[in-house]
Design goal:
alpha/beta, Aldehyde Dehydrogenase, Chain A, domain 1, Aldehyde Dehydrogenase, Chain A, domain 2, 2 domains, 16 helices, 20 strands, globular, binds nicotinamide-adenine-dinucleotide, oxidoreductase
Amino acid sequence: MNTVVSYLPGAAPAVTTLESEIRRIFDLQRETALRLRTSTAEERIAKIKRLHDAVMAHREAFYEAAYQDFKKPPAEVDLAEVLPVISEAKHAMRSLKKWMKPQHVWPTSLTIGLKSWVQYEPKGRCLIISPWNYNVNLCFSPLVSCIAAGNTAILKPSEMTPHLSALMAKIIKEIFPPDEVALFEGDVSVATALLALPFDHIFFTGSPAVGKIVMAAAAKHLASVTLELGGKSPTIIDADADIKLAARTLMWGKYTNNGQTCIAPDYVYVHASVKDAFVKECIAVIESCYGKTAAEQMQSPYLARVVNERHTQRIHNLLADAQQRGARVLCGGAVSEKDCFIQPTLLDNIPADAKIQSEEIFGPLLPIIPYTDLDRVIDEINAQPKPLALYIWSKTEANIEKTLKRTSAGGTCINHCVVQYAHGRLPFGGVNNSGIGSAHGIYGFKAFSHERAVVRTRFMMARTLFPPYTNFKRKLLDLMIKTQ
Ligand code: NAD
């Protein structure tokens, strides 16, 4: 593990290992976490505002860093990095007083005479680990919830977008003392060192495979976890769907960040009767957004690159494997690994044993699968792990209802995609393989809070049930059992 320069209060800077520096900061946060238990809404809001203002002040720097990392278009930096953090911060600043209020609870027949409420207390020292694809948003938005709930935080952004991580480290250092919020850059070794510590809560966003490692590490200390994971998100285009709308919205949801979005449509079932029309519309949308040829698309300022050569090779392999097994390229298909470029690519005729049918694509390939029987589609979706998102474009209420009721997914859009993420008053999260727990707004606040049950005696009805257990008391118990 790397060495770092550590600045101990009142002492000369000392060279130390990153592992011991992580331990030092973690220990430093202990006292602060205890102190923050009594922090007021105003104090927490002031900290969130600091983060909000710093993100606003660094917009240009985010554009620059994201472009250097994977040629991410500035508009997509605004849309998917800056805007979500700002919106999460504003929502928390407006709502925090209300969220923090103890929630009065009416007594049940068993607890008549007791006053009860739920009190939100901070969990304590929290760890936030984020993935590379929206490194800023997926680190700073949970940080808003973490601060709102009154915790300290250690952040570990992804090493795969190093320019963005370095900028985030600089911002955090400028606006927070390390005993409140600290950030450690680095790879798996840094995440592993952090996961060895007894945090009170771990908020992890990333792949299901690493989510399992995080959960196993959390189990050693019985830390609670929020796991925001990924997987394959299915999409259904019904026979009566508005094809133009479906193609326009679906291509946007798929090709923003060049398909590297956890909730991007991963594969599409299209009713066979509208498949050709749908594919034609999709190709028209791709061409109008990014250009007609591979050369034009490579020059497009609106199409981010695949994050690195390793992932370009991974996606290229998925494409090659599918083609070898008989898949047909409907549009796109060009790859330049050294440029981290893969054309937006639609595929059909994909055999069931192709790797692309089981692995999360997380890139610009989109399998199109014709269907005639919605029940079979639902059976196939239910045979896969529960997805983070499921989308349906349809005008038939019965088909929408059937799909909603007979499948399970973290979230769903009807006649749209991806925008469920943007709604700060909805819980955002997966289910089983796609995640545990929720983020955003009050759900994020609760993820970082312990809901403490408090009961206060007013008058002692329960005394009637203390020993000695007379016949009268046994009859009273009997009555209580029968009348519940
Ligand atoms: P990843 O799981 O490889 O990495 C995520 C983070 O975990 C990084 O900070 C990384 O350094 C760290 N990490 C990697 N290996 C680790 C290990 N063995 N032990 C401990 N930490 C480790 O994910 P990624 O490639 O950065 O992102 C892509 C994945 O994240 C996709 O599966 C995608 O669907 C998912 N994702 C989910 C959401 C969501 O909100 N649910 C959002 C974005 C991405």
